[in-house]
Amino acid sequence: MRLRFLYLLILLATVCAQPLAAQKKEIKEADKHFNSFEYALALDAYKKLMERKEPDAYLLERIADSYRLMNNSKEAEFWYAQAAGFENVTPASIYYYAEAAKRNGNYEKAKELYTSYARRVPEQANKAMALAASCDSAIFWTNRPLSYEISTEQSLNSSGVDFSPIQLPNGDMVFSSDRLPTDESKKKERFNWTGNGFVQLYYASMNEDSTWNEPSPLGNEINTDFHNGPASFLPQENILYFTRTNSVKRSHAKVNTDPTSWVNRGDGKGTGNINRHEIFMARRNGDEWVDVKPFKYNKPQEYSVGHPAITPDGKVLYFVSDMPGGAGETDIYYSERQPDGSWGEPVNAGEVINTSGRESFPSIGGDGKLYFSSDGHVGLGGLDIFKAEGEHGNWTRVQNLMYPLNTSRDDLGIVVDSSGTKGWLSSGRTSETGYDNIYKFREVNVECTLVGQTYEMVDQPGTHLKKRVMVDNVLLQLFEENVGSMVETHSDSTGNFNYKVEAGMQYTIRGSKKGYLTQTILFTPDCRFSIDSLLVEMIMYRDTPNVPIVLENIFYDLDKHDIRPDAAIELDKLVRILKANPTIRIELSSHTDSRQTRKYNQDLSDRRAQAAVDYIVSKGIERNRLVAKGYGETRLRNKCADYVECSEEDHQVNRRTEFKIISK
Questions:
Q1: Which of 178-187, 244-253, 534-543, 654-663 holds the top average pLDDT?
Q2: Of 479, 505, 539, which residue constitutes the final position of a domain?
Q3: Which of 373, 463, 588, 628 has the lowest tally of Cβ within 10 angstroms?
Q4: For the chain, what percent of residues have pLDDT higher than 90?
């Protein structure tokens, strides 16, 4: 970075005496390349000018713009920073400076620049401040990564752009790339937008060991001499739906020319042709592609239609277009297959999906979900990948896949398996030039911390209240159910203990200490981040015979004895105690308050106690280990007898279910 600034200072100090007229001619030629979308050529021309004239805001902005439009955010941020030092820098450059900083993960700087832009352009203040706030979200997500393992598919990637993989039923891969062929005789003309080759569709077969063979371009039936891709495949019909770029005569109307993102480029002053997208279909016949046909709603003279994504049943085709009437630069649309096999009129996917920005690169995951990329929804920078919640025609919300599936750079073209936990995506995350690569990802179990406590509830003399007393030196055995492994520890002097556990795994904790009943807890951690901690509480009960133990939260509907779902949860805990202590027999008793007659309360408590015992027996406990006993209102725990006015809370103390050990 210091060398760059030194280079710039040298340029500022070296002003050539070239005639002003010649400089203007060179600027005009450079601008011609720029306005014709030949950014690689424009960049060379502007940099040559830097060697012969003193830099100004315009020249620095043009260099920065060229890098931005070539998707090189690293260089774009540097050159916008230089332009920002001039008083006459345009507000647009401040905005693009912020965008570049955000793409580079420089969120604090981006936030500062969005705020500056809001002051300069008050009519855009709401949008700018929302973008500033999105930097806080990006920082939060980046600091709390989801647990994914991500690796580069080295054998699929090149020194150029490689993106939007799709997997065929046999496991082979088709993807888009602008790499130059290695055979010199087959090299095509470079694309002056990027300086690379033209985008083509490539095929790579998978070996038995899941490695890839050398990618090769699809045949001339699919690939033309201009841009082709991305694509989608319908296995049941062996049909490839793919994007093909059509060069059409340029007009002064709105133009979208980028073969992959379709951002509105230029100011309409250039000459020549522009790029518009079309969708084509081709049937696979062995190693050949035949019956190449255009999509019914291609209209390249007016707008682009591309990035197809076909549903597995072949009934809905999602795609991207900048056709009139959309919400933003590009929107996602869909077309439904008609009974006669034709495609229905395109329908906008709606405001839940589409924004004022770019929505693109839709795909249908193996889990049946709609995935797409957007820079209009809140994200980490550039294009982020989102998942649509809801169903076709009735989307409820979109969900950012967050970091590390998304980064501050462009993330797009995702392939997801039926579990929704692994697949491939393309991203510019590790690229110095902004070029995309293909990455493999899979979700891995998060390791987080289980924090536990062992304690007992002890009666406070003279009241019906209890207090928590920690129990130390409890032997705690952690069993991993899926593997069968076991780890031991003891609670410390304050009753605390902890374990490292993995999300999604099934565990049992068994706690034992002399003088107490052995306890077990079953749980499956639902931690999302490695910094998460889970609290587990183990209540220890004394194994003293004939001392009643109240089962909390055992409730019945008024005048009924049926076991409610919430009561079943508590009785399941008692089932685990009985299984962990197979030698004990217990009396399970039910108590009522004093309201209603004594006979009514006695009958009701008998039925409730018996219902509880029957439930426990249904869970595998031998009936001879259980005695059902109803006490009605004969063992009140407070003063609330007949004719004594009491609160509902006081009556609730008397309505309880208890158990006590009657033999060991």
A1: 534-543
A2: 539
A3: 463
A4: 67
Q: Where residue 86 falls among pLDDT bands split at 50, 70, 90?
A: very high
Token representation of residue 526: 């639902």
Q: Is the pLDDT of residue 433 over 70?
A: no
CATH code: domain of residue 516: 2.60.40.1120
CA distance 621 to 247: 77
Residue where a domain terminates, one of 505, 539, 573: 539
- CA geometry: angle at 144 spanning 141 and 146, to 5°? 90
Dist CA 91 CA 107 (whole Å): 19
**285 near 261, Cβ under 8 Å?**
no
Domain membership of residue 204 (yes or no) is yes
Residue-range definition of the domain harbouring residue 634:
547-663
Q: Are the C-beta atoms of residues 454 and 538 closer than 8 Å to each other?
A: yes
* Residues whose CB is less than 8 angstroms from the CB of residue 185 and which lie 6 or more positions away in sequence, other chains included: none
Neighbours of 459 (CB within 10 A): 11
333/229 same-domain check: yes
Q: By three-state DSSP, how is residue 590 classified?
A: strand
Q: If you search the block for the tokens 């009140």, which residue do you land on? A: 636
Q: Count up the domains in the chain and report the number.
A: 4
Residue with tokens 């002064």: 252
What pLDDT score does 446 carry? 83
pTM of this structure: 0.70
Instruction: Note whether 554 and 624 are same-domain residues.
Output: yes
